[in-house]
Design goal:
Mean pLDDT: 90
Shape: globular
Number of helices: 16
Oligomer: single chain
Distance between the termini: 35 Å
Length: 531
Amino acid sequence: FFPKKRPTTHPCLKELKITIEQEDKGLCFALMSNANSSDVLVIGAGFAGIAAATQLAHLGYQVDLLERHDHAGGRARVFEAAGFTFDMGPSWYWMPDVFEAYFKKFGSDVQKELNLVRLDPSYTVWFEDGPVDIAADLETLKATFDSMEAGAGARLQAFLDEAEIKYEIGMNNFVRKPAHSVLEFATWETLQQSTKLSLLKSFSAHARSYFTDKRLLQIIEFPVLFLGAKPEKTPALYSLMNYADTVLGTWYPMGGMHEIVRAMVRIAEKKGVRFHYNADVKCITDDGQKATGVELQDGTQWSARTVVAGADYHHVEQHLLPAQWRRYDQHYWDSRVMSPSSLLFYVGVDTRVPKLQHHNLFFDTPFGPHAETIYDTQTWPDDPLFYISAPSKTDSGIAPEGHENMFFLIPLAPGLKDEPGLRDRYFEEMCDRLAKHVGMDIRPHIVYKRSFAHEEFEEDYRAFKGNAYGLANTLRQTAFWKPKMKSKLPGMFFTGQLTTPGPGVPPSLISGEVVGNEAHRWLLKLSDGRD
């Protein structure tokens, strides 16, 4: 311990080491340690990343989560301005059973963590001839359907009964698999049940076997719009979303959707997960055989036994991994069918807006031409459909007294480029149509407005082509046809909306838990010396 010169060692050493150097007057010993080491490094503190980190900490590993922004949430970030609290991303709380199971698994209770309110109506659809409330009560909703098409109420019940079967089969036998191979689904029970999933029938054809009224078809097809393909190219399997929407209900956590993130962070930290913010990953490191950690943009080195990427799959694989470890090339990514991007506006007004509900879908123009611009021609739309969320209708705490907190969204094709004045033109059109329906022009009352579109999705989330929701859920991009959870680099894994099971908040929670189990298997192999 009395060296003439201090021995050095690589900064990524995980365990305490004794370094021996031959000196002029004998052997020199130095005890070295490195603080930047962990069992598991998770990149990205979105829903999937936090879920993966929590699952692995729950299994007994030291987990460090690296997030490039200054707080957790990923696309579910939050910001405050002019007295308003704006959720930046997801606004729909569906599939409450997934959240219940998540919090229960980690020793808590969703009712303890979140103040949930079931919305009634679940949402309102604004057609050219007026609004239709989608009631939370099923019998009331069936009566609404009957008023629009004779016998449609009974057919809605039959449609939902069949959708419930798909939901139960999907959640119990398909969604929670890592989908490395088709062989995972090759059990006799799974094969039998798959015949009930309508995998080879389109959602459009399925819906039209129950309903003919154009308004009812738009209501039924709405939940799949953000899955990333037109209803005629989406498998009828996804009627399970109608069951989640109509029967399980549309909910809202008081305080906003970011309250889910805060609750997940609390639980993760109780499990021992360490969060590191403003930690932007530059590259994944390896020893030629397996992942060994990451290097940050500021030069900080982190070592780990495994790395889980909850950031954008395309960005991580194409820009953070060395070329020899990339499973997919750029041609593969360019050939993927992406879900829509979005043009978003966060708007605060100094008055209440009459007639609006919490969730509002403006289907007062034909869906077909807008869908073609998203999925076929990849162009900016004329007369787009749009969505407005006004959470201050439910939660007065997210806006100053007497004010309204509003979130505008137009689904758009991924990869579009802005032109000067284009965003303002679309906002003006939405305001004109809103005024027509509710009898009030909000523009003189706007005290805050911020827009967010492709270039912000790319900048803030490094989202491939500025997508908002991940890959389209077409049949050829479902289950084992999605980008793999396992990287080509041993010890490296992916989670989130571009891999199994797919886009949405509940699927992202599931993705994180599933990849946590996959990383656990890898770590057990390392411990057994079988890497």
